[in-house]
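ok trying again, last paste got cut off:
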Amino acid sequence: GASALLGVADALTLAGTDGAGLLEIPAGSNGRGLREAGVLPNAGPGLAEPASIGRATHEIAAGLAAGELNAVYLLHSDPLRDLPDRPAWELALERASTVIAHASFLTESIRAHASVVFPAESYAEKEGTITHPDGRIQRLRPAVSHVGSTRAEWQVLAELAQRLGLDLGILAGPLATAQLVDAIPFYGGLTLDELAGHGVRWQERAQAAAYPAAGGATTAGSSSDAPAATREPAGSAPGGGASATPAAPDADRALATDGALRLGTFRSIWASPEVEVSPALKFLAARQQLEISPHDAERLGLRQGERVQVGSNGHRVHATVALRDAVRAGSVFLQEGTPEENVNLLVEQLVEVRPA
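nice, full thing came through this time. structure:
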């Protein structure tokens, strides 16, 4: 986990080396910026103590299913494609009385469940800021004007809040940025002019001293501003990248439980509706494949390109076998975000693989 990675960083003396450290790779773009802005169930802007505890993603699904919540706002998210535990979200969306979606494309599930759909901005239409994993805040400027009835997302959210009785006082994009800066102490005083074209690492400003320190957490100004994310199970890099030294045979066998394999997931950069609808890119559209070690493939009698079914708890996903030396024996990987045969149908960590 993070503590082990920080131990490696200490052993390599990264903390004392300028420009070196550990960076978290967020699940989505601007993940660090959203977290620092307080888009968390248990923290407010600037990672401060929240006024009230919110709900994590799976708790929102459970609340909708139980009738504790009756409305959900999906901002650039299709839960049936993008989030874990598809069965739980299918039930949640069926029972929700109001589903508001901000989407670039009408996926099958949004078309089926959304009460209202706002056309979402493309990356080229956005205005605001984005925070890179290293803490550099950069300015986003629109490259093209909004097309058709598309409106800025901040504008739609501000108007919705006003109609619900909360006037945010945001009349233009820069005002939204100013409110963000005012709410985050370690962004204090930051201006769009200061960001210019190159951006600013907030850790290098005097206001970084306002970053909240917690037990064992890295404080601002350190070279390791956030723990690096790891993929479970550790020691593999399906689809490319560095791989760990293969484990000894005894260790490999220890990973398997009663013949089951431990499931990990990854997401292709091509797993998106934009790719699927583009005539020039659709040949790259992600299709479900099972990344498995040659050792396990031989043991199970599987060959490269063979169709298999991967199952757990009564659910099945069909996939094509892809042999990967980097995958540790006893584990397999499936893709997230595929339009069909999505791994989020499987909710257990241990799965069985058999010919389709």
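cool. The chain has a mean pLDDT of 85. Residues 250 and 329 are 10 Å apart (CA to CA).
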